[in-house]
Amino acid sequence: MNYSSDIAFTDTVKSIQTRKGSRDAYAHMEQNGSWETFISPRNAEFIADQRSFFLATTNKQGQPYIQHRGGPKGFLKVLDEKTLAFADYKGNQQFISQGNLFENNKAFIFLIDYANKRRVKIWGTAEFIENDQNLLESLMPPADKYQAQPEQVFKFTVEAIDRNCPQHIPQRFDREDVESLMQQKDQTISILEQQVGELEAQLKAQLDK
User: Fold this and answer.
1) Segments forming the whole domain that contains residue 180
2) Does residue 123 share a domain with residue 56?
3) At residue 144, does pLDDT exceed 90?
4) N or C: where does the chain have the smaller number of CB atoms within 10 Å of the terminal CB?
5) Predicted structure pTM score
6) What is the mean predicted confidence (pLDDT) over 201-209?
7) What Å distances lie between residue 189 and 179, 185, 202, CA to CA?
């Protein structure tokens, strides 16, 4: 590859970009550094704030599979500038992603922040590690924060990262964030009601004089 974005921009993709008029813009992007090949502090912060992501794999026949992974904020951890990992919780026991990675270790992570209309796409390779209890335990969230049964470790090596545009992302909010805002609103209303009551009492006292 001449540029990190070539991991997605194949010759066929570039020919379509040329035909549809976007190649010059992407060529300019390539010549000015192309996509990041490591986890920058900005992307590390974004990753740590997510509660879920989508993992894409393919088997040796080229059949694709996308799986949702979720947990508390920070469950997907940045181990270093090239490595992501998380504790894989016991689920439906299909093991499609794991089987695909045995046959083809290329993988793709898609993270989307609906509230702030941001998304990050990450290309790389991945594996499941079954017999490293110390690493597994180090990746688990505190038991009082999230209940799940850990089974194995998912480890992802980054090759390229693209922060995509916010167009057409619907704005949605997590329940926990909405509940927090509602609590703040209720507290503000309570304080204002108390202040109004005190002012009414002061006014009544002055009128009674």
Assistant:
1) 173-209
2) yes
3) no
4) C
5) 0.81
6) 80
7) 15, 6, 20
pLDDT tens, residue by residue, 155-203: 999 999 998 777 766 667 677 777 777 888 888 988 988 998 888 888 8
Packed helices 11-20 and 23-31: angle between N→C axes, nearest 10 degrees:
130
Whether residue 198 is found in the same domain as residue 147: no
CA pair distance 69, 84, nearest whole angstrom? 13
Mean pLDDT of 2-30: 96
155, 107 in Cβ contact below 8 A? no
Distance CA 113, CA 132 (A): 31
116 and 186 within one domain: no
Per cent of the chain over pLDDT 90 is: 63
Please tell me whether residues 118 and 58 are part of one structural domain.
yes
Cβ contacts of 179 within 8 Å, gap of 6 or more:
none
Nearest to 112 by CA among 162, 158, 147, 181: 162
Distances (CA, A) of 158 to 21, 57, 194: 30, 14, 54
